[in-house]
Model the fold of this input.
Amino acid sequence: MSVIATGIGSLPGEDFPEAVRTVLGELPDLPHLPELPGRGAIAGMVGRALAVLADLDADLQPAGWRLTGSGGSPGVDQRRARSLLGQDLDTLEEVADGYDGAFKIQVTGPWTLAAAVERPRGDKLIADHGARRELAQALAEGVRDHVRDVRRRLPGAARVVVQLDEPALPAVLAGRVPTASGFGRHRSVDLPEASQALEWVLAAIAEEGSEPWVHSCAPGTPLDLLRGAGAQGLAVDLDVLTAADHDRLAEALEAGVTVALGAVPSTDPDREISDKQVTERVLRWLDMLGLDAQEASLAITPACGLAGATPAWSRRAMMLARTSAASLG
Done:
């Protein structure tokens, strides 16, 4: 086994070609398709997912994204989101011409999407059993097409990882997603239904020959549920893990699942941080688990996305992950 470095997805700024060059340079083991939410809602994690979504139309309202039906009439902002994703993939194809290593893409997962997007009649999709089922299936089909497109543009990529971002999953399961009024909370989703929706999307990824990961930097993420649904990689924030989480991650590593450990701050820290400090932090964690870095499929990452960081810290955070991974490996 080896220790690698990668990023979670988002970066600051609006210069996509420069972001691609930075990621390819700083994270050569597993570069990722950058997300630049600073370009607006169509470039954020929800807008990106709606650009990928198959057979469901959406538009952007003052309160956020809303589904409008399945009649093949996407709103102007959904069309803009799809156009921007296409332009970004064109840029990736140009900048990464000849690339033959591993590559990672990110897509918002079905439960975070259901907690963020409104249904046509108002309120979040999470309130409607049929709507959230339809959303998960449409996402699974859209991800298939997205993976094929990325493979076409990076024909030499030895391995493609697809990371589902599910920061809202713990809130969905605990019934903490607020209603449109803000005065109530949506009912919790039971575990079998939560698992099934994830299974559809993760299976679609695996069937396309890619490696499905799930990322959440929220506390209370159900790691066993993610593994049971088919996740071959778990991306977590080291700072929010509980004792039970450590045990589950140890079991995952022993079973050959990749753990992407968020050990580098995702926003500018108050004090200078060295790669030696990051390395020692990871070694202490592995020692607590009774594992050796050479025996684990481990990735070192920032704790979460870097969109809230300064450009200088964003680049340094990636460098710290890379140099720490090299030391551990």
